[in-house]
Amino acid sequence: MNEPIQVAIMRTVKPGHEAEFEQALHTFVQKSLNLPGQMGVNIIRPAPGGGSRQYGIIRKFANREALFAFRASPEYLAWNQLTVQLTEGSGHAEVLNGLETWFTLPVENLAPLPKWKMAIATYLGVVPVIMTLALTLGPRIRSWNFVLNNLVFNACVVVLLTWVVMPLITRALHGWLHAKSSKNSHEEQMQIFLNPKSNDQ
Fold it and tell me: Which of 39, 65, 83, 90 could cross-link to 60 by cystine, CB 3.0-4.6 Å?
């Protein structure tokens, strides 16, 4: 309950309302960041010229209490009401935990992935990165101070995994990772985020 939590929301803007949605989103984000427990917002916009009108909004909260307080805030309630006019459907929300942030693609429905699949994909990424660095970088920094050696080595591991290897792994294994599975109960649970007035919590 006290751990940080990330929520990803997907919204498809109605044709012709893109500029209005952008302005409203910018205003809402600026206001909502002042609410307690906010740890940042990332906006994933449609690629220019791609024809998509789908936006991804990833928010990070200090804990679940901050998430529920945000959901009940006047700022969010007003924003949620406005999106009814500017977007199609009810949108889609998903809680992202741990490694799921690596495996979430902005153009896909944010469905939860089996943790065993994420573990296998991560293993396939970590092993070659560590082996390659051990053979190339390792000998060059072996004589360094133990702490500095590990700081540099692990920093390189994280950088390569985050920006190079894991994006390649997730694309290569996309069909396997995102094989269809039952997710109805999870989607029903997350509708309280998108439609707070429909739930008594």
Answer: 39
**How many CA atoms within 13 Å lie on the side-chain side of 99?**
18
Residue range 63-122, pLDDT digits in tens: 889 989 998 999 999 998 898 899 998 777 777 655 555 555 444 444 556 778 888 988
Check whether residue 71 and residue 29 sit in a common domain. yes
Q: Which residues of 173-191 are buried (b: 16+ CB within 10 A; e: fewer)?
A: eeeebbeeeeeeeeeeebe
Q: Please check whether residue 105 lies inside any domain of the structure.
A: no
Q: Are residues 11 and 92 in the same domain?
A: yes
In the chain, the number of structural domains is 2
Q: For 3-57, how does the pLDDT look when each residue is reduced to its tens digit (9 = 90+)?
A: 788 888 888 999 999 999 999 999 999 999 889 998 888 888 887 777 888 888 8
Residues 137 and 190 in one domain: no
pTM (whole model) above 0.70: no
Q: Give the span between the Cα atoms of 79 and 88, in whole angstroms.
A: 15
Q: Cα 197 vs. chain centroid, distance in angstroms? A: 25
Does the residue 12 lie in any domain? yes
